[in-house]
Amino acid sequence: MYQLNDAQMFCDVSDGCAIVINVKTGIYYGMNPLGTQVFELLIKGHSPAQLLQALKDLPDTPPDMEQRLSEFVQRLVGYAILIDGPSAESAVSLASETAAADGFSLDVSEYADVQDLLQADPIHDVQTEVGWQPVLKADSE
Amino acid sequence: MTNASSLVSVLIPTHNRAHYLAEALDSVIAQAYDPYEIILVDDGSTDSTREMAQRYSRLKYFYQPHSGVSTARNVCIEKASGSFVAFLDSDDYWLPGKLQAQMRYMTEHPDCQIVFTAYRNFVTEDRINQIKRVQEEFLFEKQNRYLLPSALIRRELFDRQGRFSTSLTVGEDTEFVVRLKVGGIQLNHYLPESYYCRRLHGDNLTLTRSSKEADRILAQCLYQNVRSRIHRDMKERRERREART
């Protein structure tokens, strides 16, 4: 199954929306609430088949749900957000209110607008505990 | 050349850099464009920074108990009276013509809020043996077009976009620049001539591009600034979808 590619991705959920940042490229991603719920279950090791069944168990699931889920997972894999990981066997469920509010849409958007800003500047980085460059012994001589 | 609308405040936050301070201050005083004021905020230095500052009569010196670089930068801004501000890190220095070139650019581009310049990295002579390490890190060749201390900034920008995040002890300049970008500020104003000299601290290579710490800082900088954008986008998507059905 899948897990978060946490060697490369910073991830947090804010007000129901997952925000994933590729710290190597500066590209970041946002997901809608249903996409976020599915994503969180995927990175816990639940399979797309389990998730599809959970989606189908909800009222008014659209007939193309399998395709929607498949495309969503493919995008997450394509963005290198998901990598192979261990499986989880526990039961899964999804909130019907979230699915209905999102029209069963699984959205993940890609943003590259600050990519060029995120060039790390290691030489001038500082000691995290004091917030300034270290004073080297030879400097004070 | 100086008039009421083109007053420049030079802002120098510092902490235990007395031995480099003269080089920094002399480079400001030697500028052809005379700044309105030079503000030094001493963030709790325990060396001879205060005594060094007293040698410069026109320097406005402010001492604060050690509070970190973000707070020191913010105090600099609070004290500034100029319409423009330019930061200088106290271990670095400017090359001649910096302020003149940037002020000329600002005059020619009245919509410009912030103009960066290219910069040179350098290593103190007694650290020359560290150059190889630095070169191995390819940093001499690396140019960050958005190096905040190289910039001349309209003072009002801080009133609109806020100050430096005091929750960050590192990366506060990156976070601020990201905030500007996300806030729609044009960051493409750039002078390709090098006017800023940045001292490399050769022992300070632990935070490399691949380090977890640097990654975490970058991610936090970005995260703080893109949340609202993503929420807005997702809300708009939902509304468009509802409008269709």
Features:
heterodimer; A: 141 residues; alpha+beta; two-stranded antiparallel ribbon; 4 helices; 6 strands; 28% helix; elongated; B: 245 residues; alpha/beta; eight-stranded mixed β-sheet; 20% strand
Please identify the oligomeric state.
heterodimer
Outline the low-pLDDT stretches of chain A: none
Biggest interface pair, residues each?
Answer: A-B, 48 and 67 residues
Count of DSSP H/I helices of chain A: 4
Structure, briefly:
Chain A is of the alpha+beta class and 141 residues long. Chain A has helices at residues 33-42, 48-56, 65-78, 96-101, and strands at 2-4, 9-14, 17-22, 28-31, 82-84, 108-111. In chain A, a hairpin with a 2-residue loop joins strand 2 (9-14) and strand 3 (17-22).
Description:
- The complex is a heterodimer of chains A (141) and B (245).
- Chain A has 141 residues and is α+β, with helices and mostly antiparallel strands.
- Helix content of chain A is 28%, strand content 18%.
- Chain A contains 4 helices and 6 strands, in the order E-E-E-E-H-H-H-E-H-E.
- Chain A has helices spanning 33-42, 48-56, 65-78, 96-101; strands spanning 2-4, 9-14, 17-22, 28-31, 82-84, 108-111.
- In chain A, the strands form 2 sheets. A 4-stranded antiparallel beta sheet of chain A has the order 2-3-4-6. A two-stranded antiparallel sheet of chain A has the order 1-5.
- In chain A, strand 3 (17-22) and strand 4 form a beta hairpin.
- In chain A, helix 2 (48-56) runs antiparallel to helix 3.
- The longest helix of chain A has 14 residues, at 65-78.
- Chain A is elongated, with a radius of gyration of 20 Å.
- The mean pLDDT of chain A is 86.
- Chain B contains 8 helices and 8 strands; from the N terminus they run E-H-E-H-E-H-E-E-H-E-H-E-H-H-E-H.
- In chain B, helix 7 runs parallel beside helix 8.
- The model of chain B is unreliable at 203-210 (pLDDT under 50).
- Chain B is globular and about 75 Å long.
- Chain B has 245 residues and is an alpha/beta fold.
- An 8-stranded mixed beta sheet of chain B has the order 3-2-1-4-7-6-8-5, sandwiched between helices.
- The interface between A and B is large, with 48 and 67 residues.
